[in-house]
Amino acid sequence: MANAIEAVIYGVILLSMLTLFWSICAVHFIHPVNLRVNHGECDRCARAFETVFQSSLTFAQQVIAGDSWGTVTIPIIEESPVTAVFFAAVFLSINLTLLNVLLAVIVDNALKSSESDASIVKQKDDDRKTVQKRLRDLFVDLDRSGTGQLSQQDVAKGYEESELFRNMLSKMDIKPEDMGLIFSILDTDQSG
């Protein structure tokens, strides 16, 4: 999560620097054209690119928020069509920066989630191996005849006498009445 926040912070810094750069350029190149445009009833349009602050505010409104693009920009492009290249560069660079920041955050979170999933799977596998080893050792203890085989009576007696065996089965939600089913599952050669 910290990496995602770091990516967002760098993205905001980059976005601010890009907006500042384009705002300075707009004061020098767009404002003179904007002075020649009759904006009619739009109060803010005439001063939209008058200062770096006004230009930054205009770009935040138009490019980042996507508001009033046509109110300010279209009359300027109609007055001087070459300004379309400038506005396209502003729009593309700022939007691509935003998209890249969002993509970086998404990819970072996906990688973290994947790493977390892998560690959970590994932990479950380790737990399974530990339980298998414990059960194997427990079954050796339950084999009192030393034949290497357990009868259904050995398993039932082990359940009654071995607290460890009872606890392990209890953790797996296996009750005494399930012992016959457990034995039939474990009795792969059907020898009883």
UniProtKB/TrEMBL annotation:
Keywords of this entry: Calcium, Membrane, Transmembrane, Transmembrane helix
| A GO cellular component entry from the record | membrane
Q: How does it sit in the membrane?
A: Multi-pass membrane protein
Q: Which GO terms describe its molecular function?
A: monoatomic ion channel activity
Q: Which residues cross the membrane?
A: 7-30, 84-107
Q: Provide the species name.
A: Alexandrium andersonii
Q: Which residues form a coiled coil?
A: none
Q: InterPro entries this protein is in?
A: EF-hand-dom_pair, EF_Hand_1_Ca_BS, Ion_trans_dom
Question: Is Calcium one of the keywords UniProt gives this record?
Answer: yes
Per UniProt, residues of the Ion transport domain are 3-109
State the compartments where it is located: Membrane
Calcium found in the keyword field:
yes
Name of the protein in question: Ion transport domain-containing protein
Taken from the record, one Pfam family name reads: Ion_trans
